[in-house]
Write a structure and sequence with these properties.
single chain, about 25% strand, Heat Shock Protein 90, alpha+beta
């Protein structure tokens, strides 16, 4: 029997600018990825990406605790698209964000901060920053699967469904 292509699945969550919301949010997104059939490795890396992006939005893109952060996740055949939107920080925060994403070199070893987006870049296929006319900042990330890794996962799921 020929399998039909899977329809994309999308989710969006809005949360207050409070770091306490990050652990359950990252676990939620990783669990969705697992249910969608992605490997444990992919799900673990997804948690790291969500953690770093939302933390960045809260610390640098929120004016106060009442500012909203929105995480959108869309799962398509072979990839996941994440978008984190915040209220927009200061002009300096935006310049720092652009420098962190588009800089060809990682932060120096003497810096205690600034590694999160470098990690996101390493774990992602693509990262892009958009600044809305309303001042809101969106960071978009695409993570594609490693074909060899997910083939083993698919075979396991097919085997388990035959039992």
């Amino acid at each position: 029997m020929e399998s039909q292509p899977k329809m994309p699945t999308g989710y969006s969550v809005q949360l207050p600018s409070d770091l306490e919301y990050i652990p359950p949010l990252r676990q939620f997104v990783a669990e969705i990825a697992r249910v969608e059939g992605y490997s444990k490795k992919f799900c673990f890396r997804t948690e790291i990406i969500v953690d770093e992006l939302v933390t960045n939005g809260i610390l640098h893109g929120s004016q106060d605790v009442h500012s909203a952060i929105t995480l959108s996740a869309r799962f398509e055949e072979g990839s996941m698209n994440l978008s984190v939107q915040d209220q927009g920080g200061t002009r300096q925060n935006l310049e720092n964000l652009k420098r962190a994403v588009y800089s060809p070199k990682p932060p120096s070893n003497d810096k205690k901060k600034g590694r999160g987006l470098v990690i996101v870049q390493m774990l992602s296929s693509e990262i892009k920053i958009d600044l809305g006319e309303d001042g809101q900042t969106q960071v978009h990330v695409v993570k594609t699967i490693d074909p060899d890794e997910n083939q083993a996962q698919r075979e396991k799921l097919l085997y388990e469904s035959d039992l």
